[in-house]
């Protein structure tokens, strides 16, 4: 049920959203059960979590390839960014500076196209 709730919620689902969806089907479920299950699913690689700057982690079903996020500070829109878009930058850091990036998730904060256009 918890995995179903994540799938139904789409990308970037908070634990509270997951809990509400599961509770609608299983009224006796405890929030702690949801949190424990999320950590377990993350440890198995079925689910990934991310901190996208909203004060709590968000969860989504793990995909075949990692992706990153662009978060608009003005409107809160979150856009996915394919790993292929940042992989050349990571390779440059390793080649030019000897720095090997070990993160599997990058979050960049800024202004989306619409908000950037409004602020000009």
Distance, first to last CA? 46 Å
Average pLDDT for all residues: 90
Structural class: alpha+beta
* SSE pattern, N- to C-terminal: HHHEEEEHEH
What does this molecule look like?
The protein has 120 residues and is an alpha+beta fold. The chain has 2 domains: 2-61, Arc Repressor Mutant, subunit A (Orthogonal Bundle); 67-119, Dna Ligase, domain 1. Helices cover 46% and strands 21% of the residues. The chain has 5 helices and 5 strands, in the order H-H-H-E-E-E-E-H-E-H. It has helices at 2-9, 15-25, 31-44, 83-97, 113-119, and strands at residues 47-51, 57-61, 67-72, 78-82, 107-110. The strands form 2 sheets. A 3-stranded mixed β-sheet has the order 4-3-5. A two-stranded antiparallel sheet has the order 1-2. Helix 1 crosses helix 2 and helix 2 (15-25) packs across helix 3.
Features:
120 residues; alpha+beta; Dna Ligase, domain 1; 2 domains; 5 helices
Short description:
The chain is built from 5 helices and 5 strands; from the N terminus they run H-H-H-E-E-E-E-H-E-H. It has 120 residues and is α+β, with helices and mostly antiparallel strands. Strand 3 and strand 4 (78-82) form a beta hairpin.
Topology of helices and strands:
Layout: H1 2-9, H2 15-25, H3 31-44, E1 47-51, E2 57-61, E3 67-72, E4 78-82, H4 83-97, E5 107-110, H5 113-119
Parallel strand pairs: 3-5
Antiparallel strand pairs: 1-2, 3-4
């Amino acid at each position: 049920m918890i995995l179903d709730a994540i799938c139904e919620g789409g990308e970037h689902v908070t634990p509270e959203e997951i809990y509400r969806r599961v509770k609608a089907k299983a009224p006796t479920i405890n929030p702690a059960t949801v949190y424990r299950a999320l950590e377990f699913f993350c440890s198995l690689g079925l689910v990934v979590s991310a901190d996208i700057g909203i004060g709590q982690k968000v969860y989504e079903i793990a995909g075949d390839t990692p992706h990153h996020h662009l978060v608009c500070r003005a409107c809160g829109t979150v856009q996915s960014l394919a790993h292929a878009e940042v992989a050349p930058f990571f390779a440059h850091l390793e080649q030019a500076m000897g720095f090997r990036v070990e993160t599997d998730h990058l979050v960049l904060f800024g202004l989306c196209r619409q908000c950037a256009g409004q602020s000009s």
